Amino acid sequence: MTQKIALVTGAARGIGLATTKLFIEEGWQVAMVDRDGDELAIAVDGLDEAKPFVYDVSIPEQVTEMIAAVKGAFGRIDAVVNNAGVADFGPIEETDFARWRRVMETNLDGVFLVSQAAIPSLKETKGALLNIASISGLRASTLRVAYGTSKAAVIQLTKQQAAELGEYGIRANCVCPGPVRTKLAMAVHSQEIIDAYHDAIPLNRYGSEREIAEVIVFLCSERASYVTGQVVASDGGFDSTGVGLPALRT
Ligand SMILES: NC(=O)c1ccc[n+]([C@@H]2O[C@H](COP(=O)([O-])OP(=O)(O)OC[C@H]3O[C@@H](n4cnc5c(N)ncnc54)[C@H](O)[C@@H]3O)[C@@H](O)[C@H]2O)c1
């Protein structure tokens, strides 16, 4: 049987690294893409079924080169996980254009660019696109004018991709993680935010990288062969609940 190849962006740590490890456990090989070369070198060490690719997903020329390098190394691409992301929480009035662009260029442009460049390869394999958005793309919140808007756009981009690429056998799905204690989250989650999340999440806790990876890898696999255009929140129930729940708790 042909070994499948997953390309995972933002693979040097956090959710991307956990996803890489789970793909390998399930028999895939992984192209690990990240712009942080030092951290990527540490992450790939000991992962025999993975290769590192140091590229920035927000720069069009680098994305073109990256896809060619991955194709050159592995010969095929069966799944693309657009996971690389940055978080920047700030009030609307303090979000100038440079700050807005810094978020958009990775979180939205990066997903668009990597997907576009991978389409010819995914046509060959009838492969899968998997985009990582966030609960911040499903529910609005304070301080997330750029981050939340970028993630809501990723949700819609996924649906556009599913609608148009289905005829080639390419599936496109989106995972919206709830809070996970990664470097990205801990840089913007104060103790107050952590407590508030616990109150608002029915399962009453943060998720783990592995819990998010399980959903990602399932949606990329043959087990999800009739699933496309879907947005799945892996969030402990945060998205499904309304206001008032914490006050009703015992
Ligand atoms: N951790 C959470 O609570 C949470 C919640 C919802 C959504 N998410 C989303 O999950 C994804 C992964 O987040 P994480 O928490 O694992 O973050 P992380 O900061 O631990 O890892 C992100 C990785 O992406 C890389 N990266 C960032 N910009 C890049 C670029 N332009 N090109 C290439 N690599 C780049 C970073 O170097 C880093 O290794 C992100 O899209 C994030 O928005 C995270």
Automatic annotation (TrEMBL):
GO terms under biological process: fatty acid elongation
Similarity annotation: Belongs to the short-chain dehydrogenases/reductases (SDR) family.
Name of the molecule in the record: Ketoreductase domain-containing protein
Molecular-function annotations in GO: oxidoreductase activity, acting on the CH-OH group of donors, NAD or NADP as acceptor
Pfam families the record matches: adh_short_C2 (PF13561)
CDD domains assigned to the protein according to its UniProt record, in alphabetical order: SDR_c
Top-level taxonomic group: Bacteria
Domain Ketoreductase: 4-183
InterPro entries the record matches: KR_dom, NAD(P)-bd_dom_sf, Sc_DH/Rdtase_CS, SDR_fam
